[in-house]
User: What shape does this take?
Amino acid sequence: MDIRVVRGDITQQQVGAIVVNLFEGVTAPGGATGAVDRALDGAVSRLIEEGEIKGKRGETTLIHTLGRMPPARVIVAGLGKSDDFDANGVREAAAVSARRLRGVGVATAATIAHGAGVGGLDASEAGQAMAEGIELGLYSFDKYKSEAADSSLEEIVIVEADDAKAADIEGGILRGQAIATAVNLCRDMANEPANYMTPTRMAEIALDVARGSGLQLEVLDRPQMAELGMGALLGVAQGSDEPPKFVILSYEGDPDNPDNSLAILGKGITFDSGGLDIKGAAGMATMKGDMAGGASIIASMQAIGKLKPRINVTGIVPATENMPGGHAQRPGDVVRAMNGKTIEIDNTDAEGRLVLADAVSYARSRNHTRIVDVATLTGAVVVALGDVCTGAFGNDQKFTDIVVEAGNQVGERIWQLPTFDEYKQQYKSDVADIKNTGGRGAGATIGAQIIGEFGEGASWVHLDIAGTSRATSEKGYVPKGATGVPVRTLVNLAHTLADG
Ligand code: BES
Ligand code: ZN
Ligand code: MN
Assistant: This one.
């Protein structure tokens, strides 16, 4: 999508439609909405009076201008109550308006940067949220449809009279587009069927990202993983014919300060059948998305490489299938992770923590002291939090707070759940250092803490996105299917750590 800033009067733009906005409860519209109202002889205020336009969040009202101004259509987008308004409201309004524009088949549209006026947001934040909302809201995954849904929408211009504000909006748009491109890459990867999105394909995409964003890439294959002693990852991989890949993407934003670093790790199970502890049909149906954590890492690295925060960031993705082939690992097997710890396989379907055990060990072996892992790890976190928020777990409250706040700032809700030493006895093993499950209680915490066992000495946060990586219906700027969570959180986290 082409998104530009232009100066001038919004009512006089030579475009197919214009988009203005309204807060809930406003009866006499001002600003651009007021200008449109006057050009339409009071049509907007009349519709407000009649109760057809309420200004509610998510609402769009289409008005035909019938020759009273150059654009043939006006869309009034509701912004909700001004008290609860924030950048997320901008994203939502931009997303639903863009879809409405596409729905009526216009090619070009003009809008204002929602929130940059009476909304009280700074212009660059509003510009960024506009670009994110438009690009994220228009996303669709239709590459396997013989007849792609047609879209004629080509260009959206943002009209701003003030020169300084216009420049800020422009800067925000560039940032927003880089971030939205990354989120949509993450969505594409996680929506892709597992017969295409193999570990090999994930590594190829990482190579494209490395080239496009100026990152270093290293991809370890099975013998190299064996050399490093990644027995936990290889145990999962041995039941599949697809070769596993261990992807390492690095960005050097502060080469003089190697300690100013962050490692982000993502579970890359390209299909989770459960292994020999095979899942039922219902549980397996969505398991092409079990690499969403890994996809979020590759995508975040793309945006970080483009936005260049002053921090060194390493993205790590242990990628494999979890299949029940003839060489598959068995319940009761014992594997040894890269750091030397042994793990009894109590259940082959608890495979995410196994591949992450080696990824975290690897990050520790590279002296990383700030580690965030992202995984579709447990059904239990979905029971606890649904699809509304990601579960967070950590071993350092200060760092956990920073990660949670980084998500909440960008509208990707995160809620912390506990880790306590008392839970350790649940995953004690009779034969190995630990086992990979811990009974019925506190399933999300047990999964988290097993990963945390490999992060000793580092500040570590685990984000369980089993509930938030996929949406069952469209809402605001989030489409049905893969959501791209938590790419915006991770990009924001890199910037937060870089700035302070
Ligand atoms: N990938 C699943 C978790 C999952 C469930 C993700 C639902 C998305 C939606 C994970 O590998 C898994 O199978 N976890 C088991 C762990 C159990 C065997 C201890 C689970 O949650 O049932
Ligand atoms: Zn899994
Ligand atoms: Mn599993």
Observations:
- The chain has 15 helices and 20 strands.
- Residues 163-191 form the longest helix (29 residues).
- The first strand starts at residue 2 and ends at 6.
- The chain has two domains: 2-180, 192-498.
